[in-house]
Amino acid sequence: MALEQRKIIRWGQRIGILALGLTTNAAMVYGYDFFVYPYLIATYGFWLGLFYAIPGSTVLCLLSLWFYNVTKQDWLGIETIKRLRDESAKGKIRKFLHRIANKGDILSFLFLSLRHDAFIVTVYMRRGNGNYSMSVRDWKIFWASMLVADVWWGLLVFGAIEAFREWLMPFVPSSILNWLGSN
To answer: Cα(19)–Cα(65) distance, rounded to whole angstroms?
Structure first.
């Protein structure tokens, strides 16, 4: 059986794949981060809420990683960004961005983990462009990023909930608090 030739993806298809991938990923991540996380932490407190939220976050990241590796499609544009990071830079803006992207793995890991989920961090930090397999290093990055990102997000959500309870709740009418179940 002959090896299958890779199908050339045209610009229109690439834009469609990116639009669908980015929209789906954003809906999933923002839905979990801004609805499920706050609900769990507000209902069960910081530690127990985090204990309940982390497994769901882990499952979402593992499923995203599995789907990304199986489809072998750059549906988030990460492989394109990695290609730009690894190529030599020409021009002032490209050289500046190239310098920032190549400052080191620890800085990249921390910056990405505080901003994105473990799926994005792991795919970005994998060695090689178009690499759709996981090494031991990649799994270490994944699990470390899960811990950093979830604890960081849990602290942010807990802080927002406590700030709301302390500063804004006294000004919210009791009818709305009863409807929310907070009274």
So the answer is: 18
- Helix H or strand E encompassing 28: helix 11-31
Sorted by sequence, the CB contacts under 8 Å of residue 57 that are 6+ apart come out as 32, 37, 117, 146, 149, 150
User: What's the rounded Cα separation, in Å, for the pair 91 and 54?
Assistant: 42
65 within 8 A of 123, measured Cβ to Cβ? yes
How is residue 171 annotated by DSSP? G
Structure tokens at 104: 């080191």
Q: What is the per-residue pLDDT across 105-140, written as a single tens digit (0 to 9) for each?
A: 788 888 889 999 999 999 988 887 777 889 999 999
Q: How far apart are CA 11 and CA 22, in angstroms?
A: 16
* Cβ neighbours for 9, distance < 8 A, ≥ 6 positions apart: 17
User: What tens digit of pLDDT does each residue of 14-54 get?
Assistant: 788 888 888 999 999 999 999 999 999 999 999 999 999 99
**Six-digit token string for 90:** 């020409």
